[in-house]
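[Q] Does anyone have a clean structure-token version of this?
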Amino acid sequence: MIRNEWKGKCGTRETKESNNKSFVRSAVFAYFVFSIALAAVSMGYDRILAAGAQSNPAKKQPNIIWLVLDDAGPTLGCYGDQQAITPNMDRLAREGARFTRAFTHAPVCAPSRSGLVTGMYPTTIGSHHFRSKLINPPETFMSLLRKAGYYVAWPGKTDFNFDPADPKAATFTADPPAGAFDSRANWLETPPPRQPFFAYLNLDVMHESQVRADAAQHAKNTARLKPGEFHDPAKMKIPAYYPDAPEIRKDLAQYYDLITAADYQVGDILAWIDKHGIADETVVVLFSDHGRGMPRAKRWLYDSGIRVPLIVRAPGRIKPGATRDDLVSFIDFAPTMLALAGAEIPERLQGHIFLGDKRAKAREYAYAAADRMDKAIDRIRAVRDERFKYIRNFHPELPYAQRIPYNEENPTMRVWRKMSEEGRLSGPPALFFSPTKPKEELYDTKADPDEVRNLATDPKHRRTLERMRKAMDAWISATKDMGEIPEEELIKRGVVRDVLNEYAK
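[A] Here you go.
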């Protein structure tokens, strides 16, 4: 009876054991099926992840090297200049891209570098007068690169028109801005800095002061040149705005000699890159701080003063041998370098990104400004599209050729001024010594690359003149151009330090 009760409620022991075995087998099978399914799902998910990684690879931060020529226009062989001997820079252009319409926003070194490192127009921040000293400059793009993990080596010039730490220091004493650099040592003398790195190098052998150097100094500067690489003054092509004088021919010949000397230095740097095996991961940017260091070029807003060479080699980012005809401004450099590095780009920056995945639409205009040069007071603005140049002279009562002591040391300037005083100038060379300037200038740079035929009063170009006027007005307003504010007032407002006494001699 007891057995029957147990059997009725639970069945026999044999039945119980049989049921237990069946349950275990079912559980094992279910677990096996679940494991296979889970593995399949996992494998599929891994494939999805792998496919995603392959389709959206994380780009490694590239090294960036800036090679900055002093006082050089696009007078290189790769730009079609038959007088130039520049095999290393030409090689760089073959391996990268050559930009045909690159412009600085200022035709003299310190304001030009001020915009380069801040990504803002000097006329916006107050550093537009030559050798002025901005008291509270914006953060430089180099500092932002450091925050993004870059090692910044900057052994070159730091004349950014920033106020030096020592208020008693002369204006030409340029203290580096706080937080901008990791090193000021010459990085070519060591293995590459820890990666990623940004490295700057100033090639100043063709500076204005060296174009006019005496024979001994010129021989030192050009010691590496072979006999066939020196330039014959008698064969120099003279720009239309210069008179033909032996002194000018000699200056032009020495300038071209120095371009070749700088080319040897570029070769040394390319060899350093190759030696350390970093070419494929390094973006090389070669350009000049402004145009040629001669009269009516440096310090003036003609293409001879603001158009520069720009070559960028970026393996995997730029097709070798490319030519770019779009407009590029120095104001574009800071945001572009930050974009290549994957760094944060502040909204205050005023330029366009011209390289990489974030490349912006090509700009329609490039702008430039010239203000006080040493003791010569003036205010001139320019806007350039792909073909035309519009210049506005805010002080037409002043001559072009104001006396700037440093510029007066140039043999070209001395003989040119002497010929003017003796009444021996005519045609385009005489224009530069006119007692006044026109309020407006307009040039067709394609038909007139030396910019000696002013079209501002030509009815055929009225529409172009009006268009460029509007572009100029819009830029002055949008960028809050401080040029109309007297420098004395900027000093009172605490924008810049008072340096005017240094030029009151």
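[Q] Thanks! Anything notable?
[A] DSSP finds 16 helices and eleven strands in the chain.
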